Amino acid sequence: MSNNKVSIKKNNDGLAEVLRALQQEEVIAYPTEAVFGLGCDPDSEKAVNALLALKQRPWQKGLILIAASYEQLKPYVDDSALSDLQRETIFSCWPGPVTWVIPARIDTPHWLTGDFDSLAVRVSDHPLVQQLCLQYGKPVVSTSANLSGLEPCRTEEEVRTQFGPSLPVLLGKVGGRLKPSEIRDALTGKQFRQG
């Protein structure tokens, strides 16, 4: 069996292992535009709770979903709350490093939105994130891969040091960005975090 895992990692950078882990409601790590992210299946409360415990993050803060396309995000956001101009502004930044806070659908799980009636979402331009979300068929949760008080991981080795050898990791390099994604409110344009 360990030969199979070595073969998977060698052949596709751990994608098959990471996809299996997502299906089994486990937490994964993967490279994004600036840092490694921790992620899981957004529809699994068990997986999200495991991610929050690992990250030592309160659920009330809400989470970010990262996707390959806006279509993947539509089951979670209230597209009807956006004007054509707001939608056009969002799409002009995607795929890319801007996260937009969009009103959530009424049935979006509370473990994603936290204390809010909105959800932070991004369509990534990182090729491995695109591949991961396309292969999985939906977005994944995205939060920086770091334990409380430590710097976010930028390499697989840093992920292994902080989280141990058993965490499934999609192998690859982070993009060239030095700062995390910018976060903006889709309705007002207000900037929550500078990118």
From TrEMBL:
GO molecular function: ATP binding; double-stranded RNA binding; L-threonylcarbamoyladenylate synthase; tRNA binding
This protein's UniProt keywords: ATP-binding, Cytoplasm, Nucleotide-binding, Nucleotidyltransferase, Transferase, tRNA processing
One GO cellular component, as annotated: cytoplasm
InterPro entries assigned to the protein according to its UniProt record, in alphabetical order: DHBP_synth_RibB-like_a/b_dom, Sua5-like_dom, TC-AMP_synthase, TC-AMP_synthase_SUA5
Classification via HAMAP family: TsaC
Domain of life: Bacteria
One of the protein's GO biological processes: regulation of translational fidelity
Keyword match tRNA processing: yes
EC number(s) recorded for this UniProt protein: 2.7.7.87
Biological function: Required for the formation of a threonylcarbamoyl group on adenosine at position 37 (t(6)A37) in tRNAs that read codons beginning with adenine. Catalyzes the conversion of L-threonine, HCO(3)(-)/CO(2) and ATP to give threonylcarbamoyl-AMP (TC-AMP) as the acyladenylate intermediate, with the release of diphosphate.
Gene3D superfamilies linked: DHBP synthase
UniProt domain YrdC-like: residue ranges: 12-195
Transmembrane parts of this sequence: none
UniProt protein name: Threonylcarbamoyl-AMP synthase
Gene name tied to this protein: rimN
Compartments (UniProt record): Cytoplasm
